[in-house]
Design goal:
There is one protein chain. By secondary structure, this protein is mostly helical. Helix content is 61%, strand content 0%. The chain has 10 helices and no strands. Helix 1 runs parallel beside helix 3 and helix 7 packs across helix 10. It comes from Lactobacillus johnsonii. This is Phosphohydrolase.
């Protein structure tokens, strides 16, 4: 299974991406998802096919993200051509495609999709990337890119109930912590992810508390 083809595809499609969804994000997701899978399944081999599937989904997931991709369907067609060249079977390709098309937070607001085991580790690792120090950095980078205020006490956090509301409501970056990020810990699928998500969420809560203390000085 040729992961190098997948890495090159991801680099090419995410070249110039500056909102925290770049190639290095995919690389961190792949490394973390693999580490967590091997932690939960210590008898698994690091070169197993499921590890390759996990890494492939990790690298590819943002190449079709609607936030940064103008034509996801076109890229999906390219992925369908790519993966057989990498040595993946039709069933493995089906799992990878289902995962990357149904793993996002926005896709699961109104309906929870049950992902294959490989996809659960990809989804967990991607969500953990939204937590901790890197999560804080990515939140403010994304907010700044999209013209969101850092914080405005007149703009209250909303309860997210639909994809369209999530994409279109007025938010601040600090509100994003309350509307989404603090809730991710409870959405983790796997044992290793639950532990790491809790650690990073606690760090993030301390940051937001410090921010509010400084704001209200």
């Amino acid at each position: 299974m040729n992961i190098e083809l997948v890495k090159k595809f991801t680099k090419d499609h995410l070249k110039g991406e500056k909102t925290g969804h770049d190639y290095y994000h995919g690389q961190r997701v792949a490394n973390l998802a693999t580490k967590m899978y091997l932690s939960d399944y210590p008898d698994a081999h690091k070169d197993s096919r499921i590890v390759a599937i996990i890494q492939t989904g990790s690298y590819l997931h943002d190449t079709i993200d609607e936030k940064i991709c103008d034509n996801p369907d076109e890229v999906i067609d390219e992925i369908k051509e790519l993966l057989p060249k990498g040595g993946f079977t039709s069933l493995e390709i089906e799992d990878i495609l289902f995962t990357i098309q149904h793993m996002s937070f926005s896709a699961n607001i109104e309906h929870h999709y049950q992902l294959p085991l490989s996809g659960q580790y990809v989804q967990d690792a991607d969500r953990i990337e939204s937590l901790g120090a890197i999560g804080i950095a990515r939140a403010f980078t994304y907010g700044g890119k999209h013209g969101n205020k850092i914080y405005d006490p007149e703009i209250k956090p909303e309860k997210l109930i639909s994809h369209d509301q999530y994409r279109n409501h007025v938010e601040t970056t600090i509100n994003h912590f309350y509307e989404k990020l603090f809730d991710l810990e409870d959405l983790m699928n796997t044992p290793a992810a639950k532990k790491e998500a809790h650690r990073r969420t606690e760090y993030m809560r301390e940051f937001v508390q410090e921010f509010m203390d400084e704001w209200n000085v």
